Structure to design on (851 residues):
């Protein structure tokens, strides 16, 4: 028997936050769109989108790891590495996004390769952190230990950047196999992010129905782009679903801002509650992956033809 | 000071526990209006039942001797001041092992002791309901685990218990409504120690939120739980069942001390006499439910004696007040090399129920115990050092410098129901002119063996975790029994539904129903029993059996 739902606090603060976020996003979008100048063939455009996706992932990781490692008081000096490498990745990926013709240059490639490798090392560190706790690989340690998925996002950003370079390498497989492999990687990235969001929303007992959104839309997007890797015709389904996933990546922080409002003291107590409440910078990871996915679709379709 | 002089729930409104300074509408009844149910007590038993009965459409008034708190504005982070949550009126306590009354085992105020409980929400071991026939000790309950399980679920859902995904003991169960909290360092000491000696441990299922719920915020791990939660994360009866009860049309009368149950010539209760706003008043009711917990419930039944019932109500067989049980609570403490800061987060976050479920002959006692990690606050801790270890002056100050390194464990230990452990009424009277209770308690030989055994287990766990300089203290927690339920009118006070054998419109709904004490905290079982009683009473009303 379910207990009756209790009335919730006023939604008014949410309206203000949402209005501000939408205004900021529109403003930035308008500026970006003016600067965005897709030129060249599908490979160029794919490289550009992969760079943009990697940059967004890096912003998400940089902010998230900075906040969370600050919460952990940077107790281990290695905790500075994550945010620092995310910033390096952000620089290199942004460069690629705006100057895709340089995507295959040695410097950004080395930088993004290093960023990706750091993500793997971070994954190992975080796994060790989880396993050394009493109870080892238990749900409790996965809930509250270092998050396994977060450093993996750095690896994805690195991979996207490296692939962006490969897109412009002029090698044979660029027009045939690489777009398909990349689509599969995007599908995998989405599912990984879904797993993390789903697991953490489960930790929050899905107390708000909106918490089901990231475990509903992105898996469909992952399925469709995964299918597109096999039969490029599926790309027609992938596009709207990836766009919906991108919207989730923007809407996520608004919902999380509301989640912070529902913690003790809400935004009046923001110094504590951005740490204890839902993570503000996490959801844009969906935006980053979706952007990369949307960018690879034309190349995928061309490869199919 | 935490003190409220005047009743707040008057004139058609009651305090809104979720909004500072705000009110919620409350239905009010006239004293002469005969309500369906007058409930004495608003804690785990009475508050829960008031909600269930009001939601089933009955007219209900629930009385509490204490105030209607507004946790958000009344409660502060001050151990001394928050002592006002306890019922500290004069009581007489005796026996070979007198129970300290008036602190953790008392509650005065709407919500009862759930306002200051440590929120541990554990179910009874299924076999304990038949512990005589299945485990060979104690008494069988008149109801089985299977009968109570749906109501455990209902109570857990109503309190949004935050619990682990799989609880290592008992039967397979439905998932807890909310996820477990992160275990604090004190809990991890228990965890490491248990892993070192090879017994299972678990994060505790707790009645404090790990995610938002309506107007209530998730727990911020303030650690003052045992002194009242000022954030409403604690899912006490005050912020769960009481708002639901008010919403369903129940009236709550705070600062209303019930002195006597009124009896009619037909041998049925007609209502009750209560003291509120400086005067004695009478409330008419078709049914009276006594839910004052194991001291006040027998006291009220005994104090309500009249010409027809010279030994008190429901006391033909002389069992009212007898077979009182507590939970023995020896604790073992030690010093860790690393900082623990055990006062952070809810005081108890990890548990082992190993010795509740271990039926091997390695145990030299009957019954069981669970132990939990502990988080004493500084004033209480300093007091304990002075009282238990005789520390004073510079020695006490030096000991307190190690407070951040302290880790400890304490059991909830089963005690046997013994007839001579009981509540009676004394000749002395309290400020209302009511005879005060006299409580007598002595441990049995078996209880003592259990206590000694538990000290050994706790030492092993603490040493396994690396604690040094171990020492032991003793405490008790919870009260149970006094109006036990049963299937035999000669051998129990009330039947399986809490209904008195001799007075058909007199009911009991609290921890005094327990025939045995079990080795876990009783609140969830009391609430499950109250939920069950609510459903049973509604069913009886439909069948015309009331």
């Amino acid at each position: 028997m379910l207990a009756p739902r209790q009335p919730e606090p006023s939604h008014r603060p949410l309206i203000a936050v949402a209005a501000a976020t939408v205004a900021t996003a529109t403003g930035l979008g308008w500026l970006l769109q003016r600067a965005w100048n897709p030129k060249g063939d599908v490979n160029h455009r794919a490289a550009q989108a992969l760079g943009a996706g990697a940059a967004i992932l890096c912003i998400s990781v940089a902010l998230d790891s900075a906040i969370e490692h600050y919460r952990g008081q940077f107790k281990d000096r290695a905790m500075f590495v994550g945010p620092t490498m995310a910033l390096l990745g952000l620089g290199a990926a942004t460069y690629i996004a705006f100057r895709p013709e340089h995507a295959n240059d040695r410097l950004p490639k080395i930088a993004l390769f290093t960023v990706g490798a750091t993500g793997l090392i971070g994954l190992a560190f975080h796994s060790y952190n989880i396993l050394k706790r009493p109870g080892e690989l238990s749900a409790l340690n996965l809930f509250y230990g270092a998050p396994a998925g977060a450093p993996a996002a750095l690896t994805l950003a690195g991979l996207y950047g490296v692939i962006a370079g490969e897109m412009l390498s002029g090698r044979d497989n660029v027009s045939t196999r690489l777009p398909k492999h990349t689509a599969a990687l995007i599908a995998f990235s989405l599912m990984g992010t879904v797993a993390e969001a789903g697991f953490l929303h489960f930790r929050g007992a899905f107390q708000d129905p909106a918490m089901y959104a990231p475990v509903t839309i992105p898996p469909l997007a992952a399925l469709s782009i995964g299918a597109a890797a096999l039969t490029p015709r599926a790309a027609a389904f992938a596009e709207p679903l990836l766009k919906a996933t991108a919207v989730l990546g923007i809407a996520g922080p608004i919902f999380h801002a509301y989640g912070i409002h529902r913690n003790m003291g809400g935004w009046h107590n923001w110094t504590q509650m951005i740490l204890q409440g839902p993570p503000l910078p996490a959801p844009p990871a969906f935006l980053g992956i979706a952007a990369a996915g949307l960018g690879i679709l034309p190349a995928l379709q061309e490869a199919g033809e | 000071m935490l003190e409220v002089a005047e009743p707040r729930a008057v004139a058609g409104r009651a305090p809104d526990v979720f909004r500072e300074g705000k009110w919620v509408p409350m239905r009010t009844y006239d004293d002469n209006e005969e309500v369906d149910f007058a409930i004495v007590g608003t804690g785990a038993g009475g508050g829960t039942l008031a909600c269930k009965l009001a939601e089933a459409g009955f007219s209900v008034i629930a009385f509490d001797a204490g105030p209607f708190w507004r946790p958000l504005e009344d409660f502060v982070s001050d151990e001394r001041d928050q002592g006002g949550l306890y019922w500290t009126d004069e009581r007489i306590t005796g026996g070979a092992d007198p129970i300290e009354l008036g602190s953790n085992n008392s509650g005065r105020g709407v919500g009862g002791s759930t306002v200051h409980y440590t929120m541990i929400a554990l179910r009874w071991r299924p076999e304990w309901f038949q512990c005589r026939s299945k485990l060979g000790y104690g008494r069988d309950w008149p109801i089985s685990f299977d009968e109570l399980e749906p109501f455990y679920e209902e109570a857990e859902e109503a309190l949004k218990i935050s619990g682990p995904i799989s609880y290592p003991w008992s039967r397979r169960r439905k998932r807890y409504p909310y996820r477990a909290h992160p275990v604090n360092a004190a809990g991890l000491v228990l965890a490491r120690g248990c892993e070192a000696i090879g017994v299972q441990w678990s994060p505790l299922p707790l009645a404090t939120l790990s995610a938002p719920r309506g107007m209530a915020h998730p727990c911020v791990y303030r650690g003052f739980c045992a002194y009242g939660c000022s954030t409403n994360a604690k899912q006490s009866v005050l912020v769960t069942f009481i708002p639901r009860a008010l919403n369903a049309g129940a009236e709550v009368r705070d600062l209303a001390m019930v002195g006597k149950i009124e009896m009619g010539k037909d041998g049925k209760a007609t209502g009750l006499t209560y003291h509120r706003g400086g005067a004695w008043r009478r409330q008419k009711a078709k049914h009276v439910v006594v839910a004052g917990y194991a001291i006040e419930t027998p006291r009220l039944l005994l104090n309500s004696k009249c010409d027809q019932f010279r030994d008190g109500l429901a006391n033909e067989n002389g069992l009212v007040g007898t077979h009182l049980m507590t939970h023995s609570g020896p604790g073992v403490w030690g010093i860790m090399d690393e900082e623990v800061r055990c006062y952070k987060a809810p005081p108890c976050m990890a548990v082992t129920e190993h010795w509740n479920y271990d039926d091997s002959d390695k145990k030299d006692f009957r019954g069981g115990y669970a132990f939990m990690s502990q988080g004493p606050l500084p004033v209480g801790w300093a007091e304990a050092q002075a009282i238990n270890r005789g520390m004073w002056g510079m020695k006490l100050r030096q000991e307190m410098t190690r407070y951040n390194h302290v880790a400890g464990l304490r059991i909830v230990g089963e005690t046997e129901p013994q007839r001579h452990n009981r509540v009676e009424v004394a000749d002395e009277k309290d400020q209302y002119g009511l005879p005060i209770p006299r409580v007598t308690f002595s441990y049995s030989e078996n209880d003592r063996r259990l206590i000694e055994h538990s000290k050994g287990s706790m030492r092993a766990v603490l040493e396994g975790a690396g604690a040094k300089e171990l020492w032991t203290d003793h405490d008790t927690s919870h009260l149970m029994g006094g109006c036990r339920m049963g299937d035999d009118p000669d051998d129990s006070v009330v039947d399986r539904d809490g209904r008195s054998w001799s007075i058909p419109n007199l009911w009991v709904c609290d921890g005094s129903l327990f025939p045995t004490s079990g080795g876990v905290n009783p609140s969830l079982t009391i609430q499950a029993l109250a939920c069950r009683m609510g459903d049973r009473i509604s069913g009886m009303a439909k069948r015309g059996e009331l």
Q: What stands out?
A: The first helix of chain B runs from residue 46 to 55. The mean pLDDT of chain B is 96. The longest strand of chain B covers residues 468-480. Residues 382 and 400 of chain B are 7 Å apart (CA to CA).
